[in-house]
Model the fold of this input.
Amino acid sequence: MKSDGNLEAVLKAGHFAITGELGPPRGTNVEAVRKKAQYLKGMVDAVNITDNQTAVVRMSSWGASLLAMQEGLEPNYQMVCRDRNRLAMQSDILGACAHGISNMLCLSGDHQKFGDHPKAKGVFDIDSIQLICMVKKMRDEGKFLSEEKIDVPPRIFIGAAANPFGEPLEWRVHRLAKKVAAGADFIQTQCIYNMKTFRQWIDQANDMGLTEKVYVLAGVTPFKSLGMARYMKNNVPGMDVPDHLIKRLQGVEKEKVASEGIKIACEQIEEFKEMKGVAGVHLMAIEWEHKVPEIVEQAKLLPRPKLSRSGPHKEA
Amino acid sequence: MIIAEWKPIPELVSMLKGHKSVLLVGCATCVAECAAGGEREVETLAPLLRMALKTEGVSVEIKRKTIERQCEWEFVEALAGEIEEVDAVLSIACGIGVQALSERFAHLPVYPGVNTTSLAIREQPGLWTARCAACGDCVLGETFGLCPVARCAKSLMNGPCGGTRHNGMCEVDENVECVWNLIYERAKARGELQKLYEVRRAKNWSNSAHGGPKRMLREDLRP
Done:
């Protein structure tokens, strides 16, 4: 084991894993975190705590991760390259691990131009792949990027993101290969809607032997509304929403669109369960945490196994 | 070349208000090429400033002069005569030129008339795009002659990221080509895609501004 966490144990034991997502509040609203955490508790194996997502300032990922742990959730601590240099990253990783955080997700981060501080200086000292290399070096070699020795190295399960739908399409599996070579233990993908393109990507990953080296969690985001589906299709670069899904949502009564969205997500999850190379799903129910129990139940993913040795799921 | 663009007129007006006579100085090199600070721009800007200042109810004399290069002492020296007749200078050269004037004529305020933005090329008439970030650790040999430091919004070393648009443009600006997509296409055309499969390690930023103010010393050229 590379960490002491539940997520790694669940994946290693061969269970079909599910991770969730919790966006920290824009303030010190502790109750908001606790409330969201309650919906996710027992429903997911780990929960991503986003790091100033969409470049909007929020409670820090590690701060909200500690709150999530108090609520009995295992956090997947997200870290972006936009806001910190290599010194800040390494010290935050040490601090996070010292507090028992056992998973992290290494990301480049949305550009500051899109957020609430567009005049900010983007750091980007290192990129997401270099971040993965750095965390692996800290964990496996017990050294900082400077080659200096670490006094008790961090134990951490290293995550990375992948988008099978960005251009150039034929590059995508090679980018995954780079992240695996850099040291990623698990991958969470961009929201998947085009199952055909995803299947081609995972087939390539299987053929290249990548899925034997890394756990791939397929990204699922249920549509809450037709407007959301259209927005994802037209306004989010790197997102591929096929027309047939838009038509399907158009075909149901307005008050039933949300449950149709959940139905689509559950059908996808059923496909992923059978798909070679897919080790689980990453459910991003964006500002829809209260729907997670319903989705997870409908997707027949309950009960969740509890396998961590020293993580937050340990029985008192 | 060094690229600059005019500061907004109201910002210039607020700098110049209170002065009696200002020397507006152009530079006939980079900023002339990018149509921000050459002789033509001096001639265009002077009446605009006079008018804007007049609207504010102040009368400031704007004298005009363009020198070959504001970043070289011998050209700067040629301003010594005109400087005597003004109480401020407005330079529309890059930041180097502004500082050269303010160093040589330290008794006067020298204001910047432009914002210096980048090291760029004139891609088309009226369109300049960044090419170099003066990062001090050139990777062009590994990236097929296309700079990811200056041309990728996140200066990624291992792109393209997941945000490349379907038309090959950058997710941050739909009018800018994703440089990593260009690198990919060039590598593919040369049959050398495998070069992009290698993980490029963390960059050394210390040979640029991040290592403290840059100072280059060449003993062989010292007097």
